[in-house]
Amino acid sequence: MCYEQSVDVATETSPPGDQARRRVWRDYTRTESWPPWLRRTFTLLSPVALALAGAWVALTIAGTTQTYVGPLAIDVAFRPTLSGESVIHLDPVGAVVLDTHSGPVTLDISVRQVDLDGLNGYVDNPSSLAGLDEEITAGMQDVLVDAALRAAVTALIGGTLAAALVLRSVRRTALAAGVAGAAVLGSYGLTALTYNPEAVREPAYTGPLAAAPQLIGNAEDIATNFDAYADQLAGFVANVAAVYDTTLNLETFQPGDDTIRVLHVSDLHLNPAAWDVIDAVADQYDVDAIVDSGDIVDQGTPLENSYVRPIAELDRPYVFVKGNHDSVATAAAVAAAPNAVVLDGEPAEVAGLRFLGAPDPRFTPDKSVRGVPDEVIREGTEEFADDAADLEPPPDVIVFHDPSHAELFDGIAPLVLSGHAHKRDTYVLDDGTRVMVQGSTGGAGLRGLRDEDPTPVNLSVLYFDPETKALVAWDDLTLGGLGQTSAEIDRHQAGEDDGAAQGPEDPSPAPDLDN
């Protein structure tokens, strides 16, 4: 009775058309009902398809090797693709793409993070930079071999497991394993045969790194000069000592014990040697404060924030204003140092002097947009100058990265400190305001490694009267750039250098903005 009722219910709830369609589908999916040619094709292709699909899924899920190479934490993966290439991800600043081979596999390398403690070790010991490139090169070779073996085993297991779970046939599973193995060997073999080592000479960049060739220069030239540069870093500090000894014997102005001494630096551009030079000069000249007029980094990315950590170890106030290469994150990283003072439109009393500064209104580390918003820098300078003119009491020193429109500060403060041009200059405006443009204390950073004529390392010690707060003299220190061991000092007194250094007709033309 129950059986008949259940049949009746099923019959009532399932329309005859649905039952017929289900029977047709069930009969169609039975391979026994297929034509012989279709059964043979399925028997042959299903292990191949499952092997390839399983290998792809396995590589996606478990094909990444995570390890450290020098101070870098990296992920290395081999991905099946239609066209082969090598991609180096440097998040968040972009990626470098190299057309290294034609095999159906892409080498994917991602820099996951930087070991800050390890990186600081290289910054603290610049001489160790000489072996860093060799360490990374050797480490990468070992990592690539390990990653290739891991990817091969992962693909083989994935393809075999997929076939075993779906086909449930020992023979066809073995066929799938063979297909997976052949695919791995074929991909690696084709990659090796088509490998082009010259591809590293023609990289393609994505993201903000698209500006890298223009901002930094030819990578091959930098690599050629890097070892010589690393060997020379320690010599900078010795040159500073020689320069200081010279100042003690000068017959011109001699600062007194109460003279306010300020070290002016600018445009460090990530050069690790700059910190040793700054520290040595600050100690030997016993400066009361350090003023940095911007461009302390190159791209303004969070990865660069660790570069500014030595500020906290300088043991004296560090007054900073943001340049066009520095981001808001860069300024925040500087501000995290307990001795740092980041100027942002409000006056700050440091070492007995009243400083006023404002960040560069642009953020243009990408050279492709450099120079376009000239009206932006003028409008930003005008706005800052209007605010500075209303300040009571007036500032002793204005700090602004780009001196293109420094004439707008004329008469507002007796001294303007700037950078940006990578070339030292000083001139006096019509109403008596002196503009001091500092060269690059970082020797233009990596840019200093690309040119036959290296960019010198520039910084200056300024002497202020403790009563009037007026600039009375300054020492311009110049250390030779890459491949040079020169150390020079020029002492100037304010009364002797009141002429317009850039010419009487136009004392303040805009410097080259290509920096």
Order of neighbouring strands in the sheet with most strands? 10-9-8-7-17-18-19
Oligomer: single chain
Tell me the span between the first and last alpha carbons: 94 Å
Number of strands: 19
* Corresponding CATH architecture of the largest domain: 4-Layer Sandwich
Fold and architecture overview:
It holds the Pfam family Metallophos. Keywords: Hydrolase, Membrane, Metal-binding, Transmembrane, Transmembrane helix. The chain crosses the membrane at residues 42-62, 147-167, 174-195. This protein folds into two domains: 34-118 and 127-212, no CATH class; 256-365 and 373-493, Purple Acid Phosphatase, chain A, domain 2, CATH 3.60.21. The relative contact order is 0.10. The longest helix has 36 residues, at 132-167. It has a seven-stranded mixed beta sheet, covered by helices on one side. The chain is of the alpha/beta class. Helix 3 (36-62) packs antiparallel against helix 5 and helix 8 (219-248) packs parallel to helix 9 (273-284). It contains eleven helices and 19 strands. The N and C termini lie far apart (94 Å).
